[in-house]
Amino acid sequence: MRTSRRLPDLALARVVLALALVVLATACVSAPGTNDPFEGANRNVFAFNEGVDQNVLQPVARSYDKVAPDGFQTLLSNFYANLRFPTIFANNLFQGDPKAAAVTTGRFLANTFIGFFGFFDTATAWGLPRQEQDFGLTLGHWGVGPGPFLMLPLLGPSSARDLTGVVVDLPLSAPTWMLSFWVTGPARILQIVNARAAFLETVDENRAAAFDYYVFTRDAFLSYREGRLRTGDASATPQATEADKDLYFPDDEADR
Q: Looking at residue 56, what is its pLDDT?
């Protein structure tokens, strides 16, 4: 079972890597200063994502929000954030930051053993701040530019650099190599719904206020990633920017 489960992950990694290399090659011939050379295609994908969100994910999240207490949603958010330990720890080391790696390890141990497997964020109360790192940020740390902006089907905003980083982060994801797909699949769906429920009002307000919601989402995401690159601290990003990142299938870091 363990061997057969890894084959799809490897195939997916190869597909993502091939796509990322094509995008990076295209970026090399793009006009200087251009960060959205595929805007037409990106807008089409964005319209598709908006349709999925407004007709499927948002209604499910609203129903979930009515029956799931805020405290329960917070516990789940904490639990999923704790599972990102391998990815964050590895990228701390990739960036040559042993101090951050030590903090990440301390957080994981405190939240896992004192915080009941991560459901309670004991580490923050103990002065161990939450971090957020991935290989896209590691590439940026070593001077790799973001490349062109990309809007991915269902996955939402990204960039050439971040898409390339997925290849390294994928095998570092704890659920990928610890549990069966029949466990991680439903757990991932619950994670997505739980994170989307955290930003129902904020996303509605942003949609209503934005003159061009595609531009708003794009600029907010790029600002979000730049802020993470400078700080690496998950608490350093404004909530409005967090909401735009979590609009489409988010990645373990929604806070209430």
A: 96
| Distance from the Cα of residue 93 to its chain's centroid | 20
- What is the rounded CA–CA span in Å between residue 86 and residue 168? 12
Note the pTM of the prediction, 2 decimals. 0.75
Mean pLDDT within 161-178: 81
β-bridge mates for residue 151, sequence order? 157
Q: Which of 155, 136, 157 has its CA nearest to residue 146?
A: 136
Q: Nearest 5 degrees, angle CA 8-CA 14-CA 19?
A: 125
Tokens of 28: 């090399």
> In DSSP terms, which residues pair with 233 in a beta bridge?
131
Alpha carbon distance 241, 64 (integer Å): 23
Q: What is the pLDDT of residue 230?
A: 81
Lowest mean pLDDT among 82-86, 97-101, 238-242: 238-242
Between CA 83 and CA 67 the distance in angstroms is 25
Gap between the Cα atoms of 219 and 225, Å rounded: 10
Residue listed under structure tokens 């964005």: 46
Kindly write down the DSSP assignment for every residue of 100-168, as one continuous string.
HHHHHHHHHHIIIIITTTTTS-HHHHTT---B---HHHHHHHTT----SEEEETTTEEEEHHHHHHHHH
Q: How far apart are CA 234 and CA 227, in angstroms?
A: 10
Check residue 185 and give its pLDDT: 76
Domain ranges of the chain: 2-28+41-245
In three-state secondary structure terms, 233 is: strand
Residue 145 CB coordination number (10 Å): 12
Closest CA to 147 of 43, 241, 244, 34: 34
Residue identified by tokens 């979000």 is: 224
